[in-house]
Each structure stands twice: as structure tokens, then as C-alpha cells.
Design a protein that fits this description.
- By secondary structure, the protein is mainly α.
- It has a domain at 26-58.
- It has one helix spanning 10-57.
- The protein starts with 9 loop residues before the first helix and ends with a helix.
Amino acid sequence: MFGILPSIGPWELILILGIALIIFGPGKLPEVGKAIGKSFREFKNAASDVTEQVKEEK
């Protein structure tokens, strides 16, 4: 899935989402998802910046 965690199947994903629903509740789950998405986006941007810097130094 997205090349990040290839060993997670649909049942594992359902289990993780179920646990998150129990812990955070249905009201907080969209906020948590938004925060996780923002974190992944920032990490991706930072990683691409580092990759560009390495390419420029060569």
C-alpha cells in the first residue's frame, strides 16, 4: 500500500482503523486522519528536498 508498508493487508488495515475508532471515537477520527495526512505530506516534501540537495552536490 503506497509502497510504505507492503505487508499490511485489508484485514490488518480494518483492525487498525477499528482500534483507532475505539481509542479516538468517531468525532475525533477525521481530525486525526487530517493530522496524519499532513504529517505524511510534510515528510514527503522534506525527503524530496534532501534528495534534490544530494543530486545538486554530485
